Amino acid sequence: MTNRSTLTEAPMRQARNSAAFWIATGRCRGHEVVRRRGFVAVDGDERAGLRVLIQECGLEPGELAELSELVLHAPGPVVVEDPFSSTDLGHLGMRDWQMPVMLRPPGPVGGPALDAVRVRRPEDLQAAERIVIEGFELDGFEPYRPGELFPAALIEQPGVEVFVALRDGVPAGACVRVVDDGVGSHYWVGTSPAFRSRGVGRAVMLGALADLADLPFTLTASKLGRPLYESLGYVAAAPSTWWASVPVR
Question: pTM of the entire structure?
Fold first, then answer.
């Protein structure tokens, strides 16, 4: 059972884990990483854009000013995640929406109905990359350039692992699992359009949870993904506010 204090901690846990993931991704891409008390920013190119992860419930004036400058001078699309829903960025002209931070307490995990395997080979990483780009309709990463979304070095980063689910031997779903400071989280849980509504998302999630059932896990859920996560034992903890300069799915 999830107690109230654990749910209260979920936004902070998600903030820290998300920062760990995007710092690892940014470094593998060769992008600048900016770390401050209240936020982490990964300043990429015109395709990857700027990713900002709010780390505290409220920014200091100097931090807000620096973040605003980063947004205004970003060479590509901007996405800001605020698990605390406490920082108003309305002055930057971005659209905003909310998705719940969800928490799964430690507990048993069932076996997947499909094969779900940890990525170890470059060709499997590229398959996962294509699934995520197509599944999330990441048009900014088209035309496709292998290793741009998931650099080859990503799966060598401590705590970062990529999983694929196979249907009839064909990669059909993918996700990224990040473990940091005793907490796990999932990112880019996607299914190839040709395999939707066939249990692929569930399989890749179960595969990524199976060997770490003794850890708490967090994630930020889209409206479409929430029913799956709830069926796997995740519960909504708090609303996370996202800001973006362009439509993001």
Answer: 0.94
